[in-house]
């Protein structure tokens, strides 16, 4: 019994993030409701959450474009890019152009989280990346990328290896 408990603790310590930790970060970004899917492994974590309201949390700084987002990331560590001209996928590409390190870290978070995504989470992530009205949220300290898709009523979060 003791060996089983130690093994369970060891496996838990190997996870990239817990659902509670991911929710704690996201709740500072957007009003999320129930968890629809969550999975975490050693090098990734992914979550799919119901969106309660499309208002971005007041403590999350909102940038109108990638250049402003890069400046915010340098000082505050988290930002939402709400540029109606860009899908989240295009916003990541624009962020890479102005701040390669931050942009690539967020792109990697999305790519590295794929093994932790359920089919439902993966489909929602892919759709939100291309959704013209979806909002890209990035957190440098958390190493998290989240997509707030108001039309679908979802928030999809991804974390890669640290």
Biggest sheet statistics? 7 strands, mixed
- Indicate the overall shape: globular
Report the sheet-strand fraction. 15-25%
Query: What fraction, in percent, of the residue positions are helical?
Result: 40-55%
Describe the structure.
This protein is of the alpha+beta class and 162 residues long. The protein has 6 helices and 7 strands. Helix 3 packs across helix 4 (88-98) and helix 4 (88-98) runs antiparallel to helix 5 (100-112). The chain is globular and about 30 Å long. This is Lipoprotein.
List the helices and strands and how they pair.
Layout: H1 2-13, H2 19-27, E1 32-40, E2 45-51, E3 62-63, H3 66-75, E4 78-81, H4 88-98, H5 100-112, H6 119-130, E5 135-139, E6 144-149, E7 154-159
Parallel strand pairs: 3-4
Antiparallel strand pairs: 1-2, 2-7, 4-5, 5-6, 6-7
Helix pairs in contact: 3-4, 4-5
Protein name: Lipoprotein
Brief description of this entry?
By secondary structure, the chain is α+β, with helices and mostly antiparallel strands.
Which terms summarize this structure?
single chain, 162 residues, alpha+beta, 7-stranded mixed sheet, 6 helices, 7 strands, globular, disordered N terminus
